[in-house]
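Pipeline run #58 for the internal structure catalog. This entry was flagged by the ingest filter as a single-chain record with no existing model, so it goes straight to prediction. Upstream metadata was stripped on purpose; only the residue string is passed forward. Reviewer on rotation: M.T. Logging verbosity set to normal.
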Amino acid sequence: MIKKSIIVLAFICYVLQLNAQQSRTKYNFNPDWKFIKANPTNAQAVDYDDASWSTISTPHTFNDTDTFDDLSIGKHIGEKNQFRGTVWYRKHFKVPKTDSVKKST
């Protein structure tokens, strides 16, 4: 009897798990980010015009071109011309109305 109950319980858990997976929607948040290697004023504003910014995908390395473009000067203590300023990433997206009432994680 206990063995039968365990099997029934395992089956119920399996069915509930399948149902949860079918109702979940996953979105790829990696493409279509806006990027600028600068610190523009008011860039945090929702309505900020970032049309001139580069469109990139994440993961993204903002300093990939200047990390090794000059040789280190002795003792390999790092590059002298590496950018150390502020950069901005922005993402625009809209949640479909059908998903607006769902929990997002």
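catalog note: The radius of gyration is 24 Å.
catalog note: The CA atoms of residues 41 and 48 lie 10 Å apart.
status: ready for reviewer M.T.
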